Amino acid sequence: MKYETVMGLEVHVELATETKLFCSCSAKFGADANENVCPACCGMPGTPPVTNKKAVELALAAALVTNSKITPVMTFDKKNYFYPDLPSGCQITQLFAPICRDGWVEIETSEGRRKITLAQIHIEEDAGKLVHDNRIGASLVDFNRTSVPLVEIVSNPDFRTAEEVVAYLEKLRVLLSFAGVSDCKMQEGSMRCDVNISVREKGSSELGTRTEIKNMNSLKAIASAIAFESGRQINALETGSEALVQETRRWDDNIGETFSMREKEGVADYRYFPNPEIMPIEIDDAWISYVRENLPEPAHDKFIRLTEKLGLSDYDSNIIIGSKNLADIFDGTLKHFDNPKEVVNWIIVELLSIAKGDNKGEDDIKIDCRKFAKIMELVDNKTINRAVAKKLLLLVWKDGIDPEQYVEENQLGMVNDTGLIEKTIKDVLVEQASSVEQYKAGNTKLFNFLVGQVMKKLAGKADPKAINELLAKHLE
Amino acid sequence: MQIDKFAGMVKFSLSESERATIEDQSRVLVDSFGLLKNIDTDGVDAMFTVLDIKNVLREDVVAKNISKETLLSNAPEQYGGYFQVPKTVD
Amino acid sequence: MSGLVALEDCIMQKDMPITVGSKILDGFVSPVNATIVNRLMDSGYEIAGKTAMDEFCVPSFFDESGEALDAIQVVSEGRAQYALSNDVFGKYRKQAAENGCCYIRPTYGTVSRFGLVQSVSSMDQIGVVCKNLSDGFALLSKIAGRDSKDGAMFSEENYSYAASVKDIRVGVPKSLSDFGLAENFRTVDIELEYFDVYRQVMYILCCAELGNNISRYDGIKFGYRAPDFRGINDLYTKTRSEGFGANVKLAAIMGAMVLSQDWYTPYYEKAMKIRRLIKESLRFDDYDVIAMPCQISENPYENLSLFAPAALAGLPSVSFPHNGKGIQLIANVKREDLLLSAWEVCK
Predict the structure, then answer these.
(1) How many domains does chain A have?
(2) Contact B71 C236 (CB under 8 A)
(3) A47 touches chain B (CB under 8 A)
(4) pLDDT digits (tens, 9 = 90+) for A367-400
(5) Residue A343 belongs to what domain range?
(6) How many folded domains does chain C comprise?
(7) Is C126 part of the contact surface with chain B (CB cutoff 8 Å)?
(8) A53 to B86: CB separation less than 8 angstroms, yes or no
(9) Tens of pLDDT along A185-239?
């Protein structure tokens, strides 16, 4: 019998705000435990929520880039349940009137292009973090992430293959990160994905019993989890080895299997109701236009600018727009050094390899664009040569040195004194007389060796082109 | 009535006498709720706040108004800058 | 401006313990000042101390013998000139008028609730116990007005309250008692549509919001924690079962019930819809204020109907003794001037 897998996705994306959704605590990732917490976001009484305007605007941007229908008046609701990472015993979310509904995102896979339709996007607050400490036999609660704003993007059950799921997540990442909605880093949890999955006989129009898979923090894990879970479900249907139940399952990346998160109390009753402490938010056309007009350049437009206006190759341009961060570095550097090809080369050849050496992905690269551009400028005006420039870049990356000052202090400027270069060449020709003879006898490979000897004597600081020319002249 | 089920939702465990009292009182209340059925609410929007106010929003600017120490000083049990609870996983 | 002001123990003062009449907040020290506390002090009032209260403002609707009346007593006995309290269920309106005091429940959304421990968010309202309404409104004018820390307020920065109209039309509900108001006022017979379900709508909405607002008390971040427990669920259950009293437990359980899957639409949503009908039915067209008694029954649950309209519709209301009884006047939103005018005629 032929089976097909049917999947719907719930993607949580953290909004790139400075502060939390309902209080003015910092929303920055990576602070010490409970550093960014106030009475409101640790559930103390008497501190009512006041909604962050930026969070609404970023969610609005998410609605726009996913072609969603925006709700004219949205409201917030309370979802009730007890868990130690949820300090007020309820989560503020949107059930009855979410910010938007009925969007779509176009994806491209080996099967071609197709639209994935979205049921809705809603704004909600994140929960805190629990750390389990075996030494003291207790769990520890950190409320830094509590009330950090999220949007949950809920798709319809449109997916049939893991390839589609991965393409969709990649597309969402590009759309949302370029719109400034979120940095969409799966490893840091600013983009998270739950997969609702069921299998059915091909051709059937009814949905099978579905499970929800959680706890996948990379695209690879998602693809593996889908493969495992659909296999498990098909096997269960074919062999009757286990009865499928609607449940939540946790992906274990080390073992490579999903496990039931047995919930004792059966289906939870979250007792949603409208939050009387938060007034409705009306989103009128003027506000929508304002957000639309202030959207940063979308990835696709950027690609066209890079290829058509700046004359870069499709290949290079695709690397740059593959990451919002890289694209920002490109634009930031170009502002100080107006040579797109040079900037792209430095990013793709040098910067990415340095980052890779430090186990950093495209999104994690942090570089001062002004300093980065300065290095290119120093090469361009022949103050330093490329080899020195590469060393400088590494120092900017590691220690944040100022390139110009460093060159001066360490006398790394190129030797532009032709007389000195010629004198050095003469010395080398004497010292390396046998090599010179072999060269003249036809072993032309030795030319580069001789260039190297000259460069060595000049402490690596000469322009290789100048050495080349002068040496060639002397060897004639 | 399923008093224990609803009590469980809000994390109460009731003694025999508490349950008996609450069952009696809730029966009186629920009986009184019966009158709601008589009221025609077709086409009426639910009202969760009486205020006819919209868009109360705050600018996205960080403000820190309490130290971590003050915050944790209210905790029944804390450890290394965290709020401590019994283990939530096995 | 000066005077001693007592605060009900649900109004937060920085570095001071606060109990809300509950064991669940044992040991909790407030990290903030309520906005109104700052405003009182800035205006030269002095804080006299805290008054005891019904746990989370919830009275018994079956037996009122155990009610806390501290906020009324401090004023009637002269220990303070004013007491501020959270007028949710209307008991202070009743008790003030019956004990020679006045009470002002201002328009919902005009007094900041930052630093007021939530009971029923859509109806919580800080009100004033006072000896006479002109002093009470003078104090109110110092604390009312928008606060950026409370997201559910009107935009006015300040309110001043002054008597305005001489010739006040008083709507008197036919079915309820007569106060002999016709001597001083033009009275209009009115009928309170939906009166039969006032208390039910009020109770349903209140128990749900209260149950939710007290979910934050779990023995983890602050307040009481049960001494012995095994595991997280036991910690919750023991802490909350030991920490809350009977009236609050009843309300929270009823709250869980009316919000649960099978009950939400026929009860909770229905009550929210009727709330709109009630608000729209109080039109203040051919009457300026409504006069209501403060007691119609020995049954506290039935009396709740008298205090429901101001709470459900967010209307200002005052109560004071009149001809040997407690009277309660209700005006339209932000028409405290009419209440003050009417009171001046009565006095």
Answers:
(1) 3
(2) no
(3) no
(4) 999 999 999 999 888 888 888 899 999 999 999 8
(5) 297-409
(6) 1
(7) no
(8) no
(9) 888 889 999 999 999 999 888 889 999 999 898 999 999 999 999 999 999 998 9
Q: Do A237 and A303 have their domain in common? A: no
Token readout for A172 is 């969402």
Q: What is the pLDDT of residue A471?
A: 85
Residue C157: pLDDT band (50, 70, 90) is very high
A-chain residues within 8 Å CB-CB of C118? Answer: 45-46, 48, 277
Phi, psi dihedrals of residue A232, rounded to the nearest 5°: -60, -45
Smallest CA–CA separation between B15 and chain C, in Å? 9
Q: By C-alpha distance, which of A207, A111, A221 is closest to A166?
A: A221
User: What does the block give as tokens for C273?
Assistant: 């819809």
The reply to whether C301 touches chain B by the CB within 8 Å rule is yes
Question: A53-65 vs A162-178: helix axis angle to the nearest 10?
Answer: 130
pTM over 0.95: no
Distance from CA of A255 to the nearest CA of B (A): 18
Copy the structure tokens of residue A326: 């890289």
The answer to whether ipTM exceeds 0.90 is: yes
Rounded (5°) CA angle A25-A27-A31: 95
Q: Specify whether the CB–CB gap between C47 and C58 falls below 8 A.
A: no
Query: Do A179 and A69 share a structural domain?
Result: yes
Question: Is position C209 within any domain?
Answer: no
- Which segments of C2-101 are extended strands (E)? 4-8, 46-51, 82-86
Is residue A251 classed as helix, strand or coil in its secondary structure?
Answer: strand
The model's confidence at residue B1, banded by pLDDT at 50, 70 and 90, is low
Chain A CB within 8 Å of residue C116 CB:
yes
Residue A168 in any domain: the answer is yes
The two three-digit tokens of residue C277, written as one number: 């009908």
